[in-house]
Amino acid sequence: MPVNNEVLALILGGGQGSRLFPLTQYRSKPAVPIGGSYRLIDIPISNCLHADIRRIFVLTQFNSASLNRHIAQTYRLDHFSLSRGFVEILAAEQTPDNPNWYQGTADAVRQAERHFTRFETDYYLILAGDHLYRMDYHRLIKAHVASKAEITIAAQPVNTEDASSMGIFRFDHDGQIVAFEEKPKADRLAEIARSIPPGASFARHQPDKPFVASMGIYVFSRDVLLNVLRADSAADFGREVISGAIDSFYAANIILTQPDSPFSFYDPHRPIFTQPHMLPGARLNDCMAREAIISEGCRLERCTVEKSIVGIRTSIQGGSRISRSVLLGADFYEEDPEVSTPRNVPALGIGRDVVLDRVIIDKNVRIGDGVKLVNERGLLEHDGEGFYIRSGIIVVPKEAVIKPGTTV
Predict the structure, then answer these.
(1) Protein fold of 283-402
(2) pTM of the predicted model, to two decimals?
(3) What is the pLDDT of residues 121-130, one digit of tens each?
């Protein structure tokens, strides 16, 4: 099946991303760095390209400058390709007939309709731009066509703890969706008990994962989607389909450092694409790194890194110990800090004798010598000077400065 001619992808750029604050203070969720060298938007776009889906619109609204720049600099498809592929931004816009911004996922697609319906296609693939997964969309679309479905929704089994932060399906004995509940609370989950009714044989039921959650991946036949958008004023396809909080973002990064990680950027056949940074290899001088990802362009001096991700262009000075932390890196190299940096302002990166444990360091941060960020008081939520604590994890926002000797 010539997927690239029959399928058009619409990737949703997400809302304000308040649950990922402060990482989303200056960028949208899909633009948040992941895995040291990538951004979340690279995941769905790469999955599309591997499935030969090369007509891709990304719908954006909040804090979209960083995302727009990344897409423009990364995904320049061949102008002379017969498939005429593209990855193009569709930004929210106010028009004479609709002065409102996007009100949700379905409303975003509805408002963008006049831009994408000019392309001939049989199927629309609608994706979230801020999820970490690997999927063969070609197989998904083949299943949609073979079953003569009007709408196909990808889902996954989840445990009770995760179900409370997701959109949960309920099915009848024939496997048809009969209800959708958004982020049901614990008492409601106890009442539902499971998404698949007892005795049903259409899917394998997992006792430890009794609920089925939407993954935010939809296949619509063309006429069905257009009819739904024109006849229905609903704002969302399923409201917020996957939670995106600081603790889940942190866990998704840390698990990448494990040899048995459920997601890997090292697949030889289906690589994840991103912007080529044109950086030298990481330089480590008398360092110890264990279960760590050290990205290109880093400079590490006599330090220890364990169970951590060190993003591009990160500088770590002597005597520092980094454990269970996620460093997003830097957008630039600093010239000689003794010349270019004002007095009493730490150099870009991690200074000398710094201790970090369960910390997320955003881009272009300056951590002074002797800083200790370990959450000594075990706080779950706290706003401090130059840092935040969310779910017990210390988060240092982009371009923040932590003064020498600071202890948290």
Answers:
(1) UDP N-Acetylglucosamine Acyltransferase; domain 1 (2.160.10)
(2) 0.89
(3) 999 999 989 8
